[in-house]
Design goal:
- By secondary structure, the chain is mainly α.
- The protein folds into 2 domains: about 45 residues, Arc Repressor Mutant, subunit A (Orthogonal Bundle), CATH 1.10.10; about 130 residues, Tetracycline Repressor, domain 2 (Orthogonal Bundle), CATH 1.10.357.10.
- Helices cover about 65% and strands about 0% of the residues.
- Helix 8 packs antiparallel against helix 9.
- The longest helix has 25 residues.
- One of its GO terms (molecular function) is DNA binding.
- It holds the Pfam family TetR_N.
- Keywords: DNA-binding, Transcription, Transcription regulation.
């Protein structure tokens, strides 16, 4: 979806930005279904007509919210990768960026897992958007882990994502520092396992 502009200036409308920022804050902290258009319009201090000039429906607004979250996470991962030339340290940096989020003020879990819980129909556009984001993240993590060893990385990538999902879910329910430490310990376990030589079976019969 391309941002609409006003006044021919070529810049994103201030009203659109305000609407999206307001929706992002409320959707993330309170959920999506429970928040109506009237609430968003009131807090963004715009009219309904203004909202519908930028977003054809509430669903479009939700998709814009998730697109913004997706871009933020992609930027976070790219910055973590760029912080080191060591494949192992790049994986650690991505893991630390996740725990930084878990320990941040106002953390309410993963925006995508939260959205999937509210839109469980696999055919729904919002659910499809969640799946696309998660596939990108799994592919990215798996590719990173593939650089740490000659072993195949598919299982390691799935393991990382599973640990991440658990940490994101538990991080807003329990001590975020403890959850973060547990997650980082798990990531170290994944990296360590990739340094252990694979055992080969001995098929020679014993006399």
């Amino acid at each position: 979806m391309s941002p609409r502009t006003e006044g021919g200036s070529g810049t994103v409308s201030e009203a659109r930005t305000r609407l999206l920022n307001t929706a992002t804050r409320i959707f993330y902290t309170e959920g999506i279904h429970s928040v109506g258009i009237d609430r968003i319009v009131a807090e963004a201090q715009v009219t309904r007509a203004t909202l519908y000039r930028h977003f054809a429906s509430k669903e479009d607004l939700i998709l814009a919210y998730l697109a913004q979250a997706d871009q933020a996470i992609r930027g976070q991962v790219a910055a973590a990768q760029a912080s080191s030339s060591s494949p192992n340290d790049q994986v650690r940096a991505v893991a630390r960026s996740i725990t930084d989020g878990i320990q941040s003020t106002g953390f309410r879990g993963c925006a995508f897992l939260n959205a999937a819980a509210e839109y469980s129909d696999p055919a729904h556009p919002i659910h499809q958007t969640v799946l696309a984001h998660r596939q990108w993240f799994l592919t990215t993590v798996t590719d990173m882990l593939a650089q740490t060893s000659e072993k195949t990385a598919d299982a390691a990538g799935r393991h990382f994502v599973m640990l991440r999902d658990g940490a994101m879910s538990a991080g807003c329910l329990f001590d975020p520092k403890l959850i973060s430490d547990t997650f980082l310990h798990g990531v170290e376990g994944i990296l360590k396992a990739r340094t252990i030589p694979e055992l080969t079976s001995n098929t020679t019969a014993t006399p």
